[in-house]
Design brief:
120 residues; 11% strand; alpha+beta; 2 helices; four-stranded antiparallel β-sheet; elongated
Length: 120
Amino acid sequence: MEGSMKYQESSHTHLYSTKFMRNSKAVGVLWGIFSVCYCIIVLVVFTQDEWIGDGDQSKSSGNFGLWRWCTDSDNGREKCRGQLGDFSSVLSTAFRAATVSVGLAVAASSAAVLAFILFF
């Protein structure tokens, strides 16, 4: 008996490697598409200052977002508080942490999409 085995390439091996390469390219394209969709969603959440509003069964009227919240006043105008530039005006520590986390997610997802564009 020989101590080593010789590698023999057959038509089955070539078929499997071709199929693997085709599937890996499809997974890469889907990964890129989903990364772009994720980047858009995170960017909308970060930039929209108000995205949860009042409904029919709310205790008070108004709406809030990640870093800004508004309530309706008596004269029909909204009174809004919270600015992205003034970080101390954000509602609470939890909302500040969420704002920082979403901001980092925007930066990371934008960098990933940029890398896809540059290296694809």
